[in-house]
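User: I'm writing a short report section on ligand binding and want a predicted complex to refer to. Could you take this sequence and adenosine-5'-diphosphate and write out the structure as tokens? A short remark afterwards would be nice.
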Amino acid sequence: MSILPASERPNPYSAYGAHGSVLVLNSGSSSLKYQLVNPVGGEAIAAGTVERIGEPSGIVTHTFAGNRTRRELEVADHGAALRLALGMFDEIGPALHGAGIYAVGHRVVHGGAEFSGPVVVDDDVIDRIESLVPLAPLHNPANVQGIRVARELLGDVPHVAVFDTAFFQALPAEAYTYAIDREVAREHDVRRYGFHGTSHQYVAGKVARVLGRRVEDLNTIVLHLGNGASASAVRGGVPIDTSMGLTPLEGLVMGTRSGDIDPAVVFHLARNAGMDIDELDTLLNKRSGVLGLSGVNDFRELHRLVEEGDEDAALALDVYVHRLRKYVGAYTALLGRVDVIAFTAGVGENDAVVRAAVCADLEALGIAVDDDRNAARGEERIISPDWTKTLVMVIPTMEELAIARQSVEAVDRLHPSAAVATG
Ligand code: ADP
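Assistant: Sure. The structure tokens for the complex follow:
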């Protein structure tokens, strides 16, 4: 694997257009997702996943120029996974040295109160991300491992850490503070951090660009509804509340996570069901939410079950929508004036039934969706009728692109001469 030396590396913001690209890596506990992104044009040049890392039969997929390649083979660890991914670039394309990699952008789940923006990775940054492992024991170790092996294998290129929590470091204290004993909270860093920040920030900014407005002038509720789901209230580009908390477990009902519950459910089950902490963790993170209520967590299947008359599936959908409507109401009160409600991520972008149910019977608040606009497919669009005070929009999230652009900005901040030279 050869990468252009630093002196020959093109700046993707150069006047000559899209000469450079950013390799975005998302290292999970058993998977590696990657995308080679043009940060100027915004397109994914190539993308892939390595799944079931550490299991006997791993799966590698790589998509380039409209062709998808799939292989099954053992992937021992994250080092092997990245080597495989780089091998796919060599074999199938595009050649990474030809793509002129400007930076590698790493998605990191938890930046604690330490990181409020992207940072160029050095040994100290890795130590600091590692020190946050107690806050994100399921995510940060894999993120650190991914960064370590990527720095070994792609040593010539700057690596940037982009944190899921960073956008929400701007939350006001009354939104991020839990009402528990302040000494305990301080000693153990217990507060709301918020997650999916890259997506919430991107969508709030994209709303403004699509409308030709300044983000500073808009109040937006962003509903990121993927397998994980979160809501945020964004005033003038700055978040004033979000639904996820110390971890991504709080807030909305999700694919497999409960979202908000009475914390005493945990004490109750520990005392009466004999469940230990790990079992409770698994229950609430992996066996709850839509899956726990209905047996499935993909909304396409959920709707199929509802149509077949499955009562558990119908209840799961009702619980999911009920929670979302509570958050829309709460954030309406916090914002005072809501200019836009933006739906994004897998469910938010594709599920017209959920969008209609969330916005139903809210005409008195100036919120509604138009059935035809809601049913139409497409890119970013307005789905509310013309008369509403609040625009309801669908905005496809592009987390990889946002990570790529933040990575470029972080590198340019470190080497301002390159940025100035190219405007
Ligand atoms: P994540 O990044 O959190 O894994 P995504 O944003 O990719 O999740 O969303 C995945 C979810 O989106 C799926 O579990 C499924 O429930 C939902 N989804 C995807 N396509 C559709 C669709 N056409 N209709 C309804 N839901 C969909």
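A remark for your report: The pocket of adenosine-5'-diphosphate is lined by residues 226-228, 255, 297-300, 345-347, 350-351 (CB under 6 Å). The longest strand covers residues 44-51.
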